[in-house]
Amino acid sequence: MTKNHVTMKDVAKKARVTTQTVSRALSGGSVHPETQRRILKIAEQLGYVKNSSASALRSGRAKVVAVLYDDPRNLFFPLITDFLQENLQREGYIILTMAVRKPRMDMETYNLSLSQNVSGIISYLEPTEEFDGAISGKNIPMLLLGRHTESVNFDSVEFDDFSGGVLAAERLIDHDGCKNVLYVTENLAISCLKRRLDGFESVLENKSDVRFGICEACDVIEKLDKLNLENSLPDGVFCFNDMTAMKVLNWYDSRKIPAPKVMGFDNISQEVLLPCQLTSVGSDKCELAKTAVGILIDRMRGNDGERIRKTIPVFLAEGTTA
Amino acid sequence: MTKNHVTMKDVAKKARVTTQTVSRALSGGSVHPETQRRILKIAEQLGYVKNSSASALRSGRAKVVAVLYDDPRNLFFPLITDFLQENLQREGYIILTMAVRKPRMDMETYNLSLSQNVSGIISYLEPTEEFDGAISGKNIPMLLLGRHTESVNFDSVEFDDFSGGVLAAERLIDHDGCKNVLYVTENLAISCLKRRLDGFESVLENKSDVRFGICEACDVIEKLDKLNLENSLPDGVFCFNDMTAMKVLNWYDSRKIPAPKVMGFDNISQEVLLPCQLTSVGSDKCELAKTAVGILIDRMRGNDGERIRKTIPVFLAEGTTA
DNA sequence: TTGAAAGCGCTAACAC
DNA sequence: GTGTTAGCGCTTTCAA
What we know:
Two copies of one chain form a homodimer. Chain A is of the alpha/beta class.
């Protein structure tokens, strides 16, 4: 096997300097401007590309941020990830996205990131208590996005989930006058989902005339079928995310039953035009990403201060129109 | 800074062997079964995680595959990527997804992958000629997914785009009886999109009674507005992908104009339930991913044979129902 | 089956 | 501003 890649050594030889100088020239250390220009030119000529494995090994940190989420079919994640990437690549980081198929962060997932020498983790996965205990003291910065935790091992940037629930309930009940509401959610052990529900229920408190049912997203089809048979379909549905709202609308559409008011969460129609107007609880995704990246980068640079909790405000969003 | 990670050296010391033995024990080399058990146990106890940077540096190959695509808002990509991941992680590879904002593969994008020491590239980006010339001879395996190329530097797994175009046209014109068809596409310099159009037009050949217009996806809203003013809205629309089809449906929905027959391509509703029944040209995504990964892994293992071209059959898919 | 030695390409630390 | 030296953690190669 013949060596078929250009290293700093090659550049250094041609530029008649040491590899150290090349390293500095490329990473913005203190080098004579003239020398630097020469080195950059030669590097360019030879087609030099930095070996990030070597760089990461030596410096102890890869310029890689792991982004962890659970559902590869939720468009919300690639949308947010794209905003994250935009902010991270400005600082020279690349993103390692990992769709793991579990809602909680555990040791296995963590180790996978660790083995890649990532310098930071952004996770949509709420940590388990065991995990939280196991990693305490490790020094790879982790930030929880859109999820809540009490742990001191994570920073977090979350939505104002409680208010989101309130907004949804006010919309469906006070504004649209719904009297028979179905709330579709996932695992309520995920605390931010619990908070949405809490917010929603807080509006219901003095409204005994409103029927209220809860159902798991995975069971929603059976649930609707059942309600349909019983002739008690809801006149308002709130779904914990837009993808589930689409699923619900699909149920109505495919059965040719006129859809009631259906609301979602995440406002993905801000970025993607959906075939129908879906009212949703939205937030500034760009701001969310920017905030998260800002905090994480600060941590990766060594800021070891108190953990940070930011809450991103939410708003009611009508479906977006072309 | 105190060392806060466990290395092979630590494991080796505790197991009273050398690091080489540890390395072999972990990578399945020839080690005494007894020794191996002991080593694995100790590694587990100490919480050892392999440093992939060191591994990649030494061996010259990271167990990383770069997946390149252009549009982070197209749900098709995360869906396929998920299938790719499923197949790749079985072989110990992880995926580096990179959403670059250009439809073509160029040197910059390539170098970014290169600097990560990736051992293979799966790209939805058609290579430019310059790029193709520049990399010839480099030995990092590349596979083009869903795109066509004549280059001998890439393997490719593509859809049968021509047939896809034919199926769509037959459906809209022969089956649905459309007489005024709008074809919405992106950059026709992308050869697979050109082929879809060719397939579509081949059906139109002897049908002079069918009006046929073409429009760019980015202009489709203006186009529809204009046609609407002229009172000549199409009775059938074919879109080069499902996301664009949704955009078109959004236009109709938001203006309260009854939608005509609208078709898409990619059949994302196989994985995601959309709020309406969208007829689409689909294919077996799982098969696509499996085929692609199979070829790439073979290459990464050193198979240096002739370029491989696979074509995945397409079919007509009705919208999926909950 | 195991060990010893070397070195992948880069950068930290220090010297000049 | 530049060079020297050393070594990150792993795997390859060769020897025992």
